[in-house]
Write a structure and sequence with these properties.
Cathepsin D, subunit A, domain 1; about 10% helix; 3 domains; single chain
């Protein structure tokens, strides 16, 4: 049995859309090839904060790339500054917080994953330090959708391995195959069910470290049919996108034991209510998944049962030039009831004294599923010392 203890600090990370200011970005993203016609490679990946990081080689140096099926291939601005790859296009990206920014697209002449080499691949140049959480994760780039469509990719959470091959190497009689639809940036969309309710066009997003996200219209329908559990309301600011600008938001969090992918039960699932429908790595990791662009199928294989414990701290912290602050609070939790509110300055969390970005990163990687002692400063300058218990959302 695999035992995973989950602490939700983040909601989403890097899913975004592209709005072109030049016609040919959509052509550029279709460029590139794999150096060999026949290939098969298995590499170990690192799992950090519920996200998959894959070792990538460029010019003989090793880098950490986020595996993200909801975003295109990308390299950091630091890598681009070092190697100066040819710029081939430009576009506006829209991140998961609906912030917009103009970016350049370059052609990476060669990069490797294990012994597989990819040639002349188009990548947008990203600033992964603009968002403090992404800066803590030390992302060098994104192994994204236009790369994933060039082979068969199998993600195995039992062994923490990623297998890339030129041929489908699975027993199709032992998997559940779900058709998906693609778009111009090679994102994948499937239909799934919550009880008898069908959630259509759900983005398959390995760059989202949550379980499931649905939009408010779907949530309202599920609530009217009493198909979901208790709802928690979160208010404050959100800073989950690659551009890094914090925006005001009100979110809802609920759960369901009736989520199904085809005939497979996904088990008890935490559901975030946002502005789109997408399935994230915390739910996808309950299966061994093979991405098959040749037939436009996702092949799901059951794995050894997982024991999940999911707790919500009741609050999230953010980082700005002024220091660490309360970004959002979930209503009617221990944090809320003791007086914690958005925008309060945070001095200390357990043994973490906040004085720079490094100390904020200590918070990002801390276990927020345990009770926390927090020292705050409110709007009047008074100090508050709170002992906060988390909310147990899921245990199975």
């Amino acid at each position: 049995m695999i035992n995973r203890k989950t602490r939700f600090i983040l909601i989403g990370l890097l899913s975004f859309a592209i709005l072109s200011c030049k016609v040919h970005w959509s052509k550029a993203i279709q460029r590139g090839s794999v150096a060999s016609q026949d290939f098969h490679e298995t590499v170990k990946y690192e799992l950090r904060k519920g996200l998959i990081f894959v070792p990538v080689t460029i010019k003989g140096k090793k880098y950490r790339f986020l595996f993200d099926s909801g975003a295109p291939f990308s390299i950091s601005n630091k890598i681009q500054a070092e190697y100066g790859f040819k710029v081939v296009s430009a576009s506006n990206i829209v991140d998961s917080d609906e912030n917009r920014k103009k970016v350049e697209w370059c052609e990476v002449d060669s990069f490797g994953i294990g012994d597989i080499w990819f040639s002349k691949q188009s990548a947008f140049v990203g600033d992964f330090e603009a968002n403090p959480v992404l800066a803590c994760l030390e992302i060098d780039g994104i192994l994204g959708s236009n790369i994933i469509r060039q082979g068969f990719f199998t993600i195995d959470p039992e062994s923490n391995t990623l297998t890339i091959s030129s041929a489908l190497d699975i027993d199709t009689t032992e998997v559940t195959s779900i058709p998906f639809k693609g778009n111009s940036q090679f994102s994948m969309f499937i239909d799934l069910n919550i009880a008898e309710f069908e959630v259509q066009r759900t983005l398959v997003d390995y760059g989202f470290n949550g379980f499931l996200e649905i939009d408010s219209l779907i949530y309202d329908s599920l609530q009217q049919r009493e198909l979901i559990g208790k709802t928690w309301v979160e208010t404050g600011m959100e800073q989950s996108g690659v551009i890094g600008k914090a925006v005001e938001f009100t979110g809802r969090i609920t759960s369901s034991e009736s989520v199904r992918i085809g005939n497979l039960s996904a088990g008890n699932t935490i559901i975030f209510v946002e502005n789109e429908s997408k399935i994230g790595n915390r739910l996808l990791s309950r299966f061994k998944v093979t991405i098959d662009w040749q037939h436009k199928l996702l092949h799901f294989a059951p794995i050894e049962s997982t024991e999940d414990t999911v707790s919500l701290a009741g609050f999230k912290l953010g980082y700005a030039d002024e220091g660490v602050y309360v970004m959002s609070v979930i209503e009617n939790t221990d944090a809320f009831n003791q007086g914690m509110r958005p925008n309060m300055r945070v001095i200390e969390l357990d043994n973490i004294v906040f004085d720079d970005l490094n100390s904020y990163c200590d918070y990002v990687f801390s276990d927020m599923g345990d009770p926390k002692e927090v020292v705050l400063v409110d709007d009047t300058g008074d100090s508050l010392e709170l002992n906060i218990k988390p909310v147990l959302m899921l245990s199975r």
